Amino acid sequence: MSADEIDLGRSIELASKGASVYVFINSFADLDYVREVLGSDSVSDVDLGEARGIMLEQSSEDHAEMKRKFEGSVIVCPHGRTSLRFVHALKRYGVTAYSLHGGIEGLKSGV
Fold first, then answer.
1. What pLDDT digit, counting tens, does each position of 83-99 carry?
2. What is the dihedral of CA 20, 33, 30, 69, to 10 degrees?
3. DSSP letter string over 78-110?
4. Using one digit for the tens of pLDDT, what is the confidence trace for 97-108?
5. Could you tell me the fold of the domain covering 5-109?
């Protein structure tokens, strides 16, 4: 696990303290599943156009707004790879966020 990844316990802890959770989804069932597992209503899907711009360093979003939106958030994707790349991209903009290790599939398999 890299320093930018966190496990389920830490994800639940952050969500319980009000951290936003953003999910790269394959279906809306993924959002509901993550809400249920993390026990948080603060779960929403990632805007793929916005994420692509950030990852390709072509974001027109104001850095302060990006920091306000994503600082301290938990990012989740199906397997944990895309969310980790997104967290690394956010770091280039001075934003600290965390990738859930193993993603949704990791949650389902108990990783």
1. 999 999 999 889 999 99
2. 0
3. SSSHHHHHHHHHHHHTT---EEETTHHHHHHHT
4. 999 999 999 888
5. Oxidized Rhodanese; domain 1 (3.40.250)
